[in-house]
Amino acid sequence: MVEEPEIQSPKQCLIYKVLPQLRRWNEAAYTPQVISVGPIHHNNDRLKAMEEHKQRFFRSFVKRNKIELVHLVRTIREMEESIRGCYAETFDISSDVFVKMIMVDAGFILEILCGYGVLGQIPWATAVMFDLLLLENQLPFFVIEKLHQLAFPSDSSISNYNALLELSRNYFEPHFNFKFRDNLPIVEIGHFTDLFRVVQLPKKQPKRGCEQADLLYTATQLHEAGVKLAFINNPKRCRQLP
Asked: pLDDT means per 10 residues in the chain (242 residues)?
């Protein structure tokens, strides 16, 4: 039997602040307007109003899916080092606060993706959706995937991955003028911003680097056939040939 491939969590840094040179041109384009996700904007007082909603949706997620809170905390804590490593900077946040923040944010996101949150309950639902796409406002995708696996156990990591992609498609796609292409590759998706990059990639991507072409004739053969060659390594001898 061929062993089914595992979806590995990304090992490189994925989530970082936008450069000040870019941010100064349009601050609002890079800053969440109503909701904070992850540690970068966690202490933004302007976004505190949504914390109560996140807590409520998180509790709904846990209750609806009958997840033991102790088990959920332990799961996030086991991933804490990997999660912190996905951010370009370090955060002076205690382990308990960090784990709770990630846990609540991930549960909140899944409750929304499953259609039980935000829509019809919060007047700024569209703003929440756009905030979830900002680079500085991301959770590592493997965290959301892990909680989705706890809520909807599957025998296959690939099946879990595909189900989560379908939830993401149903949530985001109606609000944009492009379609998620079918048969997405099994790749290391970093977060929702990265997902939007992946879904828009062409099916056949050009290969990077130079490929050596098969030469049909040598320079000597071409010269003997009457082809005039320019010596491009010597500018004085370069000229336009007929």
From this structure: 42 79 86 93 89 92 92 95 92 94 95 71 78 93 93 79 84 72 65 79 56 61 70 45 41
* DSSP string for residues in 158-187: HHHHHHHHHHHHHHHGGGSSS-PPSS----
Tokens of 22: 């870019």
Q: What is the pLDDT of residues 148-157, one digit of tens each?
A: 999 988 767 7
Give one word for 190, left, alpha or beta, with left for phi > 0 and alpha for psi -120 to 50.
alpha
43-91 per-position pLDDT tens digit = 888 898 889 889 999 999 999 999 999 999 999 999 999 999 999 989 9
Residues with Cβ within 8 Å of 8's Cβ and at least 6 positions away in sequence, in order, are 188
Decide: 45 and 120 in contact? Cβ < 8 Å. no
Picking from 173, 199, 194, 206, the residue whose alpha carbon sits closest to that of residue 184 is: 199
CA distance 66 to 81: 26
The pTM of the full predicted model, rounded to 2 decimals, is: 0.74
Range 157-186 burial, b when 16+ CB lie within 10 A, else e: beebbebbbebbbebbeeeeeeebeeebee
Q: At what angle do helices 157-172 and 192-199 cross, to 10 degrees?
A: 90
